[in-house]
Structure formats: C-alpha cells, structure tokens
C-alpha cells in the first residue's frame, strides 16, 4: 500500500515555466501527503527547483519516448505507478497550467471528503475560472452538487474506479474527460463538483503549443462526433445538457421538449400530454387540458394565447376520463406545481399508465427562481427530493432526475411498478 494519500499525475510538453509555477503552488498550498508524478512528453530537460524544499522525494518524473499527449501521458503515469509499488487510494489527473491559491490549502482535502462520506461518488472536481460550464465559478452557490461530467484539468478519482473501468481511451480524438465521466456514471457512481475547492486554470497553455487550432469550433465538433460514435447521441446529449442549455435558451428552443423527444419515441406508443396547453411533445400525443382548443390560456407561456392540440378537456384536479392502464407514457410538463392535491394526481396518472409505463414530470428549480413569486398560479415549491418522495408514495420506481440548466428546471423520470 502506498504511503501517500493521493497520487497527482501531470502530463506536460515543453512547458517548464508554467509547470514549475504550478508545482510551487501545489507544494506550498497542499496539506495532505501526496506523490506527484510529472509525465514528460518532450525529450528535453525540465528543471524542477528543489532548492525551496528539503524534501522533494515525493516529486518524480518519467520521460516518454514520444509525445503521447494528455491522454497517453495520464495512462503512462498510471501504469508507471502501478509497476513501481501501486497507486495511492486517490488519483488526481491535473493539467500543468494551474495555480493553487494561498487561501486554498484545503483544496484537495475538501474534495477527498466527498469520497469519505459518500461511497457512491466516483470522481470530484473543483470550481474554476476557466472550465466546463457546470464547474464555473459563481454558477451555483451550493458547496457540493452532482454534475453530469467533470473537466479533466483537475479530476480526482479513486484507485478502485480506475481498476474497475480501466484507463483513459487513447483511441479518442479528445473529450477524454467527458468519456471518463460517462464511463464512471455507467458504473453507477456519481460525479460531484466541490465548490469549497477552487483551482485557478490558465487554460490551453499546453494544448495550443501542440495544436494552434485547439479549442476551435471544428476541433470541438470532431470531439463531439467521437463521443457520439462511442456512446450514442442520447447519452452524449444528456451528459452535455448543462453546458448546452444557454445556447438553447438564446435560440428560443424548447429544451425540455427536445429532451423529452429523446426519451420518448414517436413510434405509435400511446402518449398522454397532461396540461398540454399549445405545446404538445408530438402532434400524435393525446393532449389533456382544462381549457378547450381556441380558448385563451390562463397561466405560464399560454397566458392570453389560444390553445391548440387539446384532445381531452378535463380538469386535472378531478378524476380523468381515461381507462386504466391505457398509456405507455405520461408527460406532466409544469403541471404539478399548479395542483393543490398533487399526490392524488400522481396516483391518477399511475392508474392510467400501463405496467412499466413511464412518467415524465417537469418543474421549476426553486433554488434558481422563486417558483411561487414568478407565477401566482403556482401553489407548490417542488424539488427532486420532494418529487421522489411523492412518487414513491404513489407507487413509482426507477426514479431519475435531469437538470435543465437553460430552463432553470428539472425533469424527473419514473416508472410504474
């Protein structure tokens, strides 16, 4: 067993000045016992200043015979440590263009705390100034929150995760951090952003040395195509959803509807769209609303606009004129927050669903927008936790939550037992 708590792996390519600045900040501002391995992708001498510390035995360097890039560098580092005594309990993938601030001496211990308290956490990353959107500084006030992917610039995982899912995929053009995030989630582990930790990121200092067009639109599209080929479009879309949300909002696209169309096929299945207004998921869906076609809506985006697509006129506060086990799918998009007795409505939808039928509920995130204040017809403040409780009480299972960042809302999926 390693005597160190954490192994820090830093691939680098002819970037000595920035690398040494990063190393100095790590040594100065890290409380835990760590072993740092530099993976030198360049056949030149990188000078590590050992004069500032009497003990630098915990800093090692290997030199590769060829430039294997960041992905190959990380894999080479893992293999080297395995072959020379084994990995530590935690392994940190780190860029060479970072800075640990003097006020952040507990940056690493804060992230490790998540693993110690929650055994289902597979990887943790910090907040930063230049990073994937869901880890961006100031985006979220919560000290810890689950995310769909973590940026590879500072990616902390467990040794057991690496042993379980393997090394990074060197066949990919890029997007190794997204790929590894998906693989960790597929293994039933969670990804967490720890906002108690902040790591400054100079960003692209190494990437642009190797590739002048790094981070261009064409570069990003090539990475996206690679990930879609490997994992499929639906999984890629659900993973990247939080950073795509603002784009959809700016381009007036109904993100919730687009997401639901990925989840629910238009292949002849019987779909009931409850409280549909004039925005059914598909024209073939059966729209249910208390207001008939042509009359003006009274809340939300349908207020003072004529409704269209309503097939069944029925008050959702009353028993619905639909036979038992008739629906393959039920959609309740921004409905429950308007219903006083929402447990009875969930039970009514449960009655209508076929066995193993699925329910999708969309509702506002009260942490990001005051649900009652934004619409006086709202009578409930909902959260994924309260929705889960209500769904379990009314007989649903296999409950999953998806955050719609561009809409400031959640979609919860559940299945009829």
Quick recap:
The protein has 12 helices and 17 strands. By secondary structure, it is of the alpha/beta class. The strands form 3 sheets. It has an 8-stranded mixed β-sheet, sandwiched between helices. The protein has a 7-stranded mixed β-sheet with strand order 13-12-11-14-15-17-16, sandwiched between helices.
Structure characterization notes:
The chain has 417 residues and is an alpha/beta fold. Helices cover 31% and strands 24% of the residues. The chain has twelve helices and 17 strands. It has helices at residues 16-28, 69-83, 107-117, 159-165, 176-186, 207-210, 217-231, 233-250, 255-263, 342-352, 371-374, 384-393, and strands at residues 6-12, 34-40, 59-63, 90-94, 98-99, 121-127, 144-147, 154-158, 190-198, 200-201, 271-274, 286-289, 310-313, 327-333, 353-364, 396-404, 409-416. It has an eight-stranded mixed beta sheet with strand order 3-2-1-4-8-6-9-7, with helices on both faces. Strand 1, helix 1 (16-28) and strand 2 (34-40) form a beta-alpha-beta unit. The longest helix has 18 residues, at 233-250. It is elongated, with a radius of gyration of 25 Å. Mean pLDDT is 85; it is low at 50-54 and 243-251.
């Amino acid at each position: 067993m390693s005597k160190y708590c954490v192994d820090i792996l830093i691939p680098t390519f002819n970037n000595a000045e920035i690398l040494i600045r990063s190393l100095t900040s790590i040594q100065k501002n890290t409380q835990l016992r760590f072993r740092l391995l530099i993976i030198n992708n360049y056949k030149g001498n990188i000078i590590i200043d050992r004069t500032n510390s009497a003990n630098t035995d915990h800093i090692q360097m290997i030199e590769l015979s060829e430039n294997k890039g960041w992905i190959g560098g990380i894999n080479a580092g893992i293999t080297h440590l395995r072959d020379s005594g084994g990995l530590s309990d935690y392994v940190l993938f780190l860029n060479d263009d970072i800075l640990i601030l003097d006020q952040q001496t507990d940056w690493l211990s804060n992230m490790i705390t998540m693993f110690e308290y929650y055994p289902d956490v597979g990887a943790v990353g910090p907040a930063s100034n230049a990073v994937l959107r869901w880890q961006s500084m100031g985006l979220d006030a919560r000290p810890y929150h689950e995310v769909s992917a973590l940026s590879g610039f500072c990616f902390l995982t467990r040794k057991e995760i690496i042993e379980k899912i393997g090394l990074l995929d060197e066949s990919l053009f890029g997007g190794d951090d997204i790929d590894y995030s998906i693989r960790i989630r597929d293994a039933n582990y969670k990804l967490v952003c720890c906002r108690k930790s902040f790591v400054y990121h100079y960003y692209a200092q190494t990437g642009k040395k190797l590739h002048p067009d790094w981070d261009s639109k064409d570069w990003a599209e090539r990475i996206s195509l690679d990930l879609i080929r490997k994992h499929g479009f639906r999984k890629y879309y659900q993973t990247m959803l939080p950073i795509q949300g603002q784009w959809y909002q700016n381009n007036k696209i109904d993100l919730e509807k687009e997401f639901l169309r990925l989840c629910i096929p238009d292949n002849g299945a019987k779909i009931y769209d409850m409280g549909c207004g004039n925005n059914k998921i598909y024209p073939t869906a059966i729209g249910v609303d208390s207001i008939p076609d042509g009359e003006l809506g009274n809340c939300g985006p349908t207020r003072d606009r004529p409704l269209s697509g309503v097939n069944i006129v029925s008050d959702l506060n009353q028993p619905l004129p639909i036979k038992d086990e008739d629906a393959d799918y039920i959609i309740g998009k921004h409905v429950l927050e308007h219903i006083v007795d929402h447990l009875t409505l969930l039970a009514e939808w449960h009655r209508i669903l076929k066995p193993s039928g699925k329910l999708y509920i969309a509702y506002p995130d009260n942490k990001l927008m005051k649900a009652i204040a934004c619409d006086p017809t709202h009578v409930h403040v909902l959260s994924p936790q309260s929705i889960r409780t209500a769904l379990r009480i009314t007989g649903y299972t296999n409950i999953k939550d998806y955050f719609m960042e561009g809409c400031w809302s959640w979609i919860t999926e559940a299945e009829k037992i």
